[in-house]
Specification:
This protein is an alpha/beta fold. It is built from 7 helices and 9 strands; from the N terminus they run αββββααββαβαβαβα. The chain has one domain: Rossmann fold (3-Layer(aba) Sandwich), CATH 3.40.50.
Length: 276
């Protein structure tokens, strides 16, 4: 029986396959799409699509709203790589596998990572359809993709005092102002899932300082910072969190709202990429 691949081998094998498919493209920006936000990939010019089934060690997503492909192309005159479909720990994947795409991006020479997610709104002023710029996060998954031996090129103890790049956030606010896109800003709490939170848990998160809650992003940002990537994050607030209203939560409704506000979020990201 063949022994399991080492983390370094997994990164190199996946990156080699992607690099072959990209040809001369050399993306400097990678964009991770959350639930219901996959239509963003349609904005890319001269797109090349690489299904996860063609990439070593990339599992197929099992969640509705995550298509399972990398899309390379031109956006605002720049080569970008879009990850359409995440791996989540609640699907049974270890934290290190959820962090694998970010490590592959770093291996491919990406220097800036933009992440999006669908999230529940904890802040009482957030309505469905709000776009929140992530200023900071709280990792309540109690997992970390950096566990184990430090990999070449990664910091053993990455500084997380400024996980979401201050200059990128300032640029996002300026793009939103010029394009007249309403943009909130707040703290994102990442939980393991897959169940939605209870009203008591939401009250706890509110007291901890969280403005939105979801089931992704935090592991990717930790790994990206260890690899030296600059990060920018956005949450599409698709629903009030449990207990904020008496309304029951349903994933299909989450995707419907995410799809409705995807245009504003895409315009924001495109505007930022254009000025990097």
């Amino acid at each position: 029986m063949r022994p399991p691949a080492t983390p370094v081998a997994m990164i190199e094998e996946a990156a080699a396959t992607i690099r072959t498919r990209l040809g001369r493209r050399a993306p400097s920006v990678a964009i991770v799409l959350g639930s219901g936000l996959g239509q963003f990939a349609e904005r890319l010019e001269s797109a090349v699509r690489v299904p996860y089934t063609d990439i070593p060690h990339f599992p197929a997503p099992t969640v509705i709203g995550h298509s399972g492909e990398l899309v390379a192309g031109r956006l605002a005159g720049r080569d970008v790589l879009v990850q359409s479909g995440r791996f989540h720990m609640y699907e049974g994947h270890p934290a290190a596998l959820c962090a694998l795409p970010v490590r592959v991006f770093a291996k491919l020479g990406v220097g800036t990572l933009a992440l999006t997610n669908a999230a529940g709104g904890i802040r009482r002023s957030f309505s469905s359809g709000t776009v929140m710029l992530i200023a900071d996060h709280i990792n309540l998954t109690f997992r970390n993709g950096l566990l184990g031996a430090a990999l070449p090129g990664e910091s053993r103890f990455p500084d997380m005092s400024d996980p979401y790049d201050a200059s990128l956030r300032a640029l996002a606010r300026e793009v939103a102002r010029r394009r007249r896109i309403p943009l909130a800003e707040g703290v994102y709490a990442g939980l393991l899932g897959p169940s939605y939170e209870t009203p008591a848990e939401i009250r706890m998160l509110e007291r901890l300082g969280a403005d939105a809650v979801g089931m992704s992003t935090v592991l990717e940002v930790i790994t990206a910072r260890a690899a030296g990537l600059r990060c920018l994050g956005f949450s599409a607030i698709t629903n009030p969190a449990a207990g904020v209203t008496p309304h029951k939560l349903h994933h299909l409704e989450v995707m419907e709202v995410a799809y409705r506000i995807a245009g504003e979020l895409a315009a924001l990201i495109e505007g930022v990429v254009a000025e990097l």
